[in-house]
Amino acid sequence: MVWRERTIPLAFCLVTNSASFAFMYQVLSFLVRTLLICTIGLGSATQAENDQQDAHIPANYSEAVDLFITLDNVSGWWDGFVDPAYRSDWERRFGWTAEDQAWADRYSEYRHRTYADPSQTMDIASSPHGLFSARTAYAGETDPLATFMVDQPNVETAIENLGEIANADDVNTLRGFYIHFEDHWRQIQSENGALSSFADKLEAQLSGEKLDDYLSKVSTFYGVKRDGNFRVFFTRFPLNTRSRAEIVAGRNLILHAPIDWKFEDGEWDTIVAHEIVHYVSSLQNDEQKRSLTDRFLARCPTANSRQRLSLLEEPLAVAVGQVGYSEQVLGKPLEPLSNWYGNPRIDITARSIAKSILNALKKGIPIAKSSLVEEAALLCDAIAKIENHR
Ligand SMILES: [Zn+2]
Fold first, then answer.
1. 3-state secondary structure of 288
2. How far is the CA of 346 from the centre of ligand 1 (A)?
3. For helices 344-363 and 372-388, what crossing angle results, to 10°?
């Protein structure tokens, strides 16, 4: 099977051990399918250039986005891209007929034909993106259906206006697909009231001077300009044991949330910070990505393309995202047992570089002028040596 970025088990793990309760959840993140035209102002940016933005990040529950995300996953159109939990829950509740599968197959054909991200397979030794996410992962043309859905005011308008992105045959396919399953997704959406409450609470957290300052520091760290504001959409995740997050349509963050969690259990603000870091990282110019990658590979020559995002991109998203956000915005360290990462390599690397990351953010030191790449690479090399001595 061809390895794809989105198949990486990018999981946050929250483990809270106390006398009263213990639980773990995973947030699969960074399923880089998205879009948005990144007319990105690349190149270096000064702290002053990055101080001109509104830090307010709106969060909402959108029926149109929830419809898209739910049925996209239920359809099972791409193993490793969709989460099988959606189909399992759907089958448990509603069953799955041959006619259902026929509609899923038609939808799958449309999705494979119209979703196109050339960055899904890359050689870290030669790709201009190296160990980092590619801007094409967030380009507008990459996922036209997601790009359309995040701007729809309601499901009726979305289904009515599919002709804006699809030809007549594809409109029939998509409209027929959504209408065929309508009774069931309407029933699911009727239960989603908690998600609006989650969105209101999260939006109240995602604004203010400290957040603005933090976002500027992240942009300075990666040497890019802030190029616009983000939006957050809550959608329903079918299990109450974990959640997941992803970026779609560029600066649109999807938080797949169980409806029976308490808001506080989600740690959604730190997850938003993590996803934003991925997006900002993708804005680095190719020269910088290649240079940082070459520095890394010089210290950890055994690194391979299958590990591409787990070596540096993800540990940075954890350390700059969750750790940096916690320190800079919440004013407290990220607790050792809190929301770090479920993948051991990523978790260990993130914890190892966290102190240096905080120092770089605090002092405005760009990644290119820091030793963070070498620090992560030395750990990569040490892990490789441990693995070789098993
Ligand atoms: Zn991530």
1. helix
2. 10
3. 160
CA of 339 to the centre of ligand 1 (A): 12
The predicted structure's pLDDT at residue 297: 97
- Side-chain-side CA neighbours of 2 within 13 Å: the count stands at 8
The pLDDT tens digits for 337-350 are: 887 898 899 999 99
Rounded distance from Cα 71 to ligand 1 centre (Å): 23
**pLDDT digits 0-9 by tens, 362-382:** 999 999 999 999 999 999 999
Give me ligand 1 centre to Cα 73, in Å: 19
Contacts of 163 (CB under 8 A, 6+ apart): 171
- For residue 106, the CA-to-ligand 1 centroid distance in Å is 31
Q: How remote is the CA of residue 368 from the centroid of ligand 1, in Å?
A: 21
Query: Which residue's entry shows tokens 């006619």?
Result: 99
Question: What's the 277 CA to ligand 1 centre distance in angstroms?
Answer: 8
Q: Cα–Cα distance between 341 and 27 in angstroms, integer?
A: 9
- The token pair at 210 is 């400290």
At residue 25, φ and ψ (nearest 5 deg) are: -140, 165
Question: pLDDT grade, residue 44 (50/70/90)?
Answer: very low
CA distances (Å), 105 to each of 97, 158, 303, 318, 382, in order? Answer: 12, 21, 38, 37, 46
Confidence of residue 151 (pLDDT cuts 50, 70, 90): very high
For the entire predicted model, the pTM comes to 0.85
Q: How far is the CA of 177 from the centre of ligand 1 (A)?
A: 31
Q: Which residue has the higher pLDDT, 80 or 269?
A: 269
- Mean pLDDT of the chain, nearest integer: 85
What is the Å distance from ligand 1's center to 299 Cα? 23
- Ligand 1 centroid to residue 347 C-alpha, Å: 11
Give the residue from 265, 248, 135, 158 showing the smallest Cα distance to 202. Answer: 265
Tell me the β-bridge partners of 239: none
Show Cβ contacts of residue 121 under 8 Å, excluding neighbours closer than 6 positions: 2, 3, 4
d(CA 294, CA 125): 8
